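go over this chain:
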Amino acid sequence: MNRTFLYPALRGALCARDVVALRRLYAEHGAAAFAGALSTCSSRVSADALSLLPLRGRIRVLPHLPPPARAQLESLCRPARATALPNASIPLSGGYGP
């Protein structure tokens, strides 16, 4: 099947949170076709879909994504910078009093 079918099927599986259907689509169509369908999605949707695949599946799909799509996914994986709140402290001793 082509990307025209795979994209709506992929979106439907994601909307339904149907992990079995998503993994079946990956198994039936392969990493390259799956990546092709993901490349038309936003980076957050792509990340969501990839998170529902087993690690081995993710590893196989990533090289097939276009470089801009991979870069967007990498930007989602970077940890957010911690910003200190003024006058905020965390007790290290576990106690709440002086």
About this structure: Residues 82 and 88 are 13 Å apart (CA to CA). Residues 3-77 form one domain. The helical segments are 3-15, 19-38, 43-51, 55-61, 67-77. The chain is about 60% helix and 0% strand.
